[in-house]
Amino acid sequence: LEDSIGLDPGYKELIPFANKIRSQHEKIIMAAKSRQDFTANVSHELKTPLTAISGYAELIENKMVPANQEVYFAKQIRENANRLLNLINDIIRLSELDHTKIHSDFVSLHLLEEAKEVCSTLQINAQKKNVSLVCYGSDEVILSNKELLKELISNLVQNAIQYNNENGKVVVHIYNENGAVLSVKDNGIGIPKNVQNRVFERFYRVDKSRSRQTGGTGLGLAIVKHIVEIHDAHIELISEEGKGCEIIVRF
Ligand code: ADP
Asked: Which residues does ligand 1 sit against, CB inside 6 Å?
C-alpha cells in the first residue's frame, strides 16, 4: 500500500490506513515473538529445578550420598520442589490474567484499608529481615476487585522487603494526585537504570542467583503489570542502584 502511495499521489488519503496496518502488523509480530520467548523460558525455568531434584534423588537411590549429607540432600530436593511449585503457581496465574481483560466485577474499595491489610500480613516477613514496614495516607476509593488489588500490593511490598537490606525501610503511601495513587518505596539495593524497563518482562531478574535464593520466580512484576492494565492504571518505577526503589501505581 505504501509503495502504491509513493507511485501515485492520488492514493494520499490511504496513508493513515497504511500506517495503521503497519503498526498493527508490528504489534502482531511482537506478540508472537514474546509468546515464543515465553514458551522457551518456561521450559528452561521448569527444567532447572526438575533436573536438580532428579539428580539428588538418583544419588540417594544409588546410595552415593556422602556421610552426613542426607539432610543437605533432602533440603536441596525440598527447595527445588518449592521453586517448581512457585513457578507453576505464577505461570498459571499469568495465564488466568491473560484471559481477564474485563473488569465487570469491580466494586468501590478503600485503597488504604486494603494496603493496611496486606502490610499486616507481610509484617512477619519484614520483621524476619529487621525491615520496618509502614503504611499510611489518605482514604482513596477506587474501583477494583479485592483479590486482584491485594495481589498487586502484596507483590510490590514483598519485593520491597526482599530486595532490601537488613534494617531497611518500606513505606506504602496512598495519596491523591489527579486520582488515587499507591506508592511502595524502599531503601534497598535498587535497580540499575539500564534494566529498569526490563523488570516487568516475564522471567527477567536483575540478579538471577539472588532471586532464586529468595524463592523469586521473575514473574511477580509481570503479574503486577497485568493487574495494572486490567485497572486501566499506570505504573512508574523510580530507582537508583544502591539507594532503593519506588513503584508508583496511578489509578
Ligand atoms: P522476582 O520473583 O525475581 O522477585 P519480579 O518480577 O517480582 O521477580 O521482579 C523482577 C526483578 O526485578 C527481581 O528479580 C529484582 O531483580 C528486581 N526487583 C523487583 N523489585 C525490586 C525492588 N524493590 N528493589 C530492587 N530490585 C527489585
From this structure: 159-160, 163, 186, 188-191, 199, 204-207, 211, 216-222, 245
